[in-house]
Amino acid sequence: MGTQAVVARATEGGGFAGRIVLHDGEPGTAASLLRSIVHHVCGGDVEAAIRLLIDEHPGGWVDIPDADSDGTCLCHDAPPLNGPATTELATHETSGHTEFVYVLHPDRLQILVPGSDGWEEIRSISWAY
After folding, report:
1. How many other C-beta atoms lie within 10 A of the C-beta of residue 19?
2. Pairing mode, if any, of strands 90-91 and 15-21?
3. What is the Cα Rg of the chain in Å?
4. Is there a contact between 44 and 55 (Cβ–Cβ < 8 Å)?
5. In sequence order, which residues have a C-beta less than 8 Å from that of residue 124 and are 6 or more positions away?
6. Which of 59, 100, 103, 126 lies 20 to 30 Å from 109 when distance is taken between CA atoms?
7. Which pTM was predicted?
8. What letter would DSSP give residue 4?
9. Beta-strand pair 72-73/15-21
10. Strands 118-126 and 108-115
Protein backbone atom coordinates (compact mmCIF):
# COMPACT_ATOMS: atom_id res chain seq x y z
CA MET A 1 0.00 0.00 0.00
CA GLY A 2 1.20 3.51 -0.75
CA THR A 3 1.68 6.43 1.57
CA GLN A 4 -1.63 7.36 3.20
CA ALA A 5 -2.57 11.01 3.28
CA VAL A 6 -5.54 13.32 3.73
CA VAL A 7 -6.63 16.01 1.26
CA ALA A 8 -8.46 18.66 3.27
CA ARG A 9 -9.95 22.10 3.55
CA ALA A 10 -9.02 24.41 6.43
CA THR A 11 -11.49 24.69 9.31
CA GLU A 12 -11.87 27.35 11.96
CA GLY A 13 -9.28 27.37 14.71
CA GLY A 14 -6.46 26.08 12.51
CA GLY A 15 -7.89 22.60 11.96
CA PHE A 16 -8.71 20.65 8.81
CA ALA A 17 -11.35 18.28 7.47
CA GLY A 18 -10.93 16.11 4.41
CA ARG A 19 -10.79 12.73 2.74
CA ILE A 20 -8.36 9.85 2.97
CA VAL A 21 -6.05 9.11 0.03
CA LEU A 22 -4.54 5.61 0.12
CA HIS A 23 -1.80 6.16 -2.49
CA ASP A 24 0.08 9.17 -3.91
CA GLY A 25 0.63 10.58 -0.41
CA GLU A 26 4.31 11.49 -0.64
CA PRO A 27 4.80 15.27 -0.93
CA GLY A 28 6.73 15.08 -4.21
CA THR A 29 3.83 13.28 -5.89
CA ALA A 30 0.81 14.68 -4.05
CA ALA A 31 1.80 18.35 -4.24
CA SER A 32 2.33 18.08 -8.00
CA LEU A 33 -0.99 16.24 -8.49
CA LEU A 34 -2.91 18.75 -6.37
CA ARG A 35 -1.41 21.70 -8.25
CA SER A 36 -2.39 19.99 -11.51
CA ILE A 37 -5.97 19.53 -10.28
CA VAL A 38 -6.26 23.18 -9.25
CA HIS A 39 -4.68 24.59 -12.42
CA HIS A 40 -5.56 22.14 -15.19
CA VAL A 41 -8.68 20.29 -14.04
CA CYS A 42 -10.39 23.15 -12.17
CA GLY A 43 -9.04 26.13 -14.13
CA GLY A 44 -7.31 27.70 -11.12
CA ASP A 45 -10.44 27.51 -8.93
CA VAL A 46 -9.33 26.14 -5.54
CA GLU A 47 -12.93 25.91 -4.28
CA ALA A 48 -13.84 23.76 -7.29
CA ALA A 49 -10.89 21.48 -6.48
CA ILE A 50 -12.09 21.21 -2.86
CA ARG A 51 -15.59 20.31 -4.04
CA LEU A 52 -14.21 17.68 -6.41
CA LEU A 53 -11.79 16.08 -3.95
CA ILE A 54 -13.80 16.32 -0.72
CA ASP A 55 -17.50 17.02 -1.26
CA GLU A 56 -18.17 14.97 -4.40
CA HIS A 57 -16.24 11.88 -3.22
CA PRO A 58 -17.20 11.18 0.39
CA GLY A 59 -15.51 7.78 0.43
CA GLY A 60 -12.05 9.19 -0.21
CA TRP A 61 -9.54 8.12 -2.82
CA VAL A 62 -7.30 5.23 -3.78
CA ASP A 63 -5.37 7.67 -5.94
CA ILE A 64 -6.24 11.24 -6.74
CA PRO A 65 -7.09 12.56 -10.21
CA ASP A 66 -4.84 14.69 -12.35
CA ALA A 67 -4.93 16.29 -15.79
CA ASP A 68 -4.59 12.86 -17.46
CA SER A 69 -6.63 10.60 -15.15
CA ASP A 70 -9.89 10.67 -13.21
CA GLY A 71 -8.23 8.97 -10.24
CA THR A 72 -9.90 6.12 -8.36
CA CYS A 73 -12.34 7.03 -5.63
CA LEU A 74 -13.56 4.68 -2.92
CA CYS A 75 -17.20 5.72 -3.26
CA HIS A 76 -17.75 5.30 -7.01
CA ASP A 77 -14.87 3.32 -8.53
CA ALA A 78 -13.27 0.94 -6.06
CA PRO A 79 -15.27 0.00 -2.97
CA PRO A 80 -12.92 -1.22 -0.24
CA LEU A 81 -12.64 -4.92 0.51
CA ASN A 82 -13.68 -4.49 4.15
CA GLY A 83 -17.17 -3.14 3.50
CA PRO A 84 -18.50 0.22 2.37
CA ALA A 85 -16.26 3.26 2.34
CA THR A 86 -16.57 5.55 5.31
CA THR A 87 -18.09 8.96 4.65
CA GLU A 88 -16.76 10.45 7.87
CA LEU A 89 -14.41 13.36 7.33
CA ALA A 90 -10.84 12.90 8.45
CA THR A 91 -9.98 15.80 10.78
CA HIS A 92 -7.07 17.16 12.77
CA GLU A 93 -8.47 15.13 15.68
CA THR A 94 -9.11 11.79 13.89
CA SER A 95 -6.22 11.38 11.42
CA GLY A 96 -3.75 9.64 13.69
CA HIS A 97 -2.38 7.10 11.18
CA THR A 98 -1.98 9.59 8.36
CA GLU A 99 1.55 10.44 7.26
CA PHE A 100 0.77 13.68 5.42
CA VAL A 101 -2.12 16.15 5.26
CA TYR A 102 -2.59 18.51 2.31
CA VAL A 103 -4.74 21.50 3.24
CA LEU A 104 -6.05 23.47 0.28
CA HIS A 105 -6.21 27.17 1.16
CA PRO A 106 -7.38 29.86 -1.29
CA ASP A 107 -3.78 31.05 -1.82
CA ARG A 108 -1.64 28.01 -1.06
CA LEU A 109 -1.23 24.31 -0.41
CA GLN A 110 -0.17 23.59 3.16
CA ILE A 111 1.59 20.28 3.92
CA LEU A 112 1.34 18.94 7.47
CA VAL A 113 2.90 15.97 9.28
CA PRO A 114 2.19 14.54 12.72
CA GLY A 115 4.34 16.18 15.37
CA SER A 116 4.86 15.75 19.07
CA ASP A 117 2.22 18.41 19.79
CA GLY A 118 -0.27 17.88 16.97
CA TRP A 119 0.13 18.68 13.29
CA GLU A 120 3.19 20.60 12.09
CA GLU A 121 3.62 22.42 8.80
CA ILE A 122 6.58 21.24 6.75
CA ARG A 123 5.86 23.27 3.64
CA SER A 124 3.52 25.86 2.16
CA ILE A 125 3.33 26.15 -1.64
CA SER A 126 1.68 29.04 -3.48
CA TRP A 127 -0.84 28.12 -6.17
CA ALA A 128 0.77 30.77 -8.40
CA TYR A 129 3.37 29.56 -10.88
Report:
1. 28
2. antiparallel
3. 13
4. no
5. 108, 109, 110, 111
6. 59
7. 0.88
8. -
9. unpaired
10. antiparallel
